[in-house]
Amino acid sequence: MKFEVTILGSSSATPVFNRNPTAQLLNCKDKFYLIDCGEGTQQQLIRFGLKASKIDVAFISHLHGDHYFGLVGLLSTMNLNGRIKPFQIFAPAALMEILEIQFRYSETNLRFEIDFCPITADEPRIIFQNQDMTVETIILNHRIPCTGFKFTEKKRLRKVLVEKLEKDNVAPEYYQLLKKGMDLTLPDGRVLMNEEYTIDSDEPKSYCYCSDTMADGSYLDSIRNCTMLYHEATFMDDMIERANVTHHTTALQAGRVAKDVGAGKLLIGHFSSRYKTLLPLLEEAQGVFANTELALEGITFTV
Ligand SMILES: [Zn+2]
Ligand SMILES: [Zn+2]
Asked: Is 212 annotated as a binding residue?
């Protein structure tokens, strides 16, 4: 069962050579969710062999351009490519106005419906649920209203003990009922107690996406014990004054956040264009939280 994220962009504010503004593609059980959509996202999808037509939902954190300037282009391309199935967008309310103006003046009539779901950055809320996962907002502290997103897998079915079942001559056709936690009576009269033939599945995994924010601790309860945390790390810690003024985070602070909340793994991204090489940022975060990686474009991380 897939639960993984591919980095499409990891730059803050402006693109630099080899780094695009923020965008990520989450794959949960072969359903695709876009997280932010910086300029050039559709090019990145093509570059990494990912199909825009498979994406049905987008989550936009806030209305700084480096997080959504790619959306109009992407939607226009979907239209030109004949999309007819609806596209769902979770974003601050004003984004719909922005999209409508662009479509109105380009006389673009989308052939598919945009199911626009406004989100507010006041308190954490569950905004999306399906059979695979739940999405909850994380209230961040940025210069304008900004929400992160916590993606949590739904609890998986129980695991069957195949060797024991084979030894006891239980046909595979009964496995699915056992996975659902049921006790069974077989045609030959034998009763299978579920607890003897299954074990509990792993705890549901979670992916937290935190961009952009200052690391003021206000949102830590929302991301506690997550399996994988993406946290912005725009600056090195020698620029903490700049980070505070612009409501961003340093690599050192991102490491501290991951440590404080007991995250399993940390990805850092949203790097300032001033950094030509990213190794110092990685080392700074790893000094506090060893299991840190750079959110480099084209890399897919399993949650
Ligand atoms: Zn940004
Ligand atoms: Zn921003």
From this structure: yes
The angle, 0 to 180 degrees and rounded to 10, between the axes of the packed helices 251-261 and 279-286 is 30
| Residue 97 Cα to ligand 1 middle (Å) | 20
What is the mean pLDDT of the segment spanning 95-100?
97
Task: Confirm whether residue 64 is marked as ligand binding.
Answer: yes
Looking at the fold, whether 267 and 228 belong to one and the same domain comes out as yes
Looking at residue 27, its pLDDT comes to 98
What's the structural domain count of the chain?
2
Asked whether residue 248 is marked as a ligand-binding residue, the answer is: no
State the pTM of this model: 0.91
Q: Which domain holds residue 93?
A: 3-156+202-302
201-247 pLDDT, tens digit each: 888 999 999 999 999 999 999 999 999 999 999 999 999 999 999 99
Of the ligands numbered here, which is closest to the C-alpha atom of 23? 1
- Cβ-contact 284, 252 below 8 angstroms: yes
The verdict on 61 and 113 lying in the same domain is yes
Mean pLDDT of 105-122: 96
Residue 100 amino acid letter: E
Which bound ligand lies closest to the C-alpha atom of 22? 1
Active site residue 56: no
Ligand 2 centre to CA of 46 (Å) is 25
Q: What integer pLDDT is reported at residue 14 of this predicted model?
A: 80
Provide the pairing of β-strand 184-185 with 191-192.
Answer: antiparallel
Selecting among 30, 36, 56, 66, the annotated active-site residue is 66
* Greatest CA separation for the chain: 74
Ligand nearest, relative to CA of residue 269 = 1
Cα 69 to Cα 65: distance, rounded to the nearest angstrom: 5
Instruction: Kindly state whether residues 12 and 96 are assigned to the same domain.
Output: yes
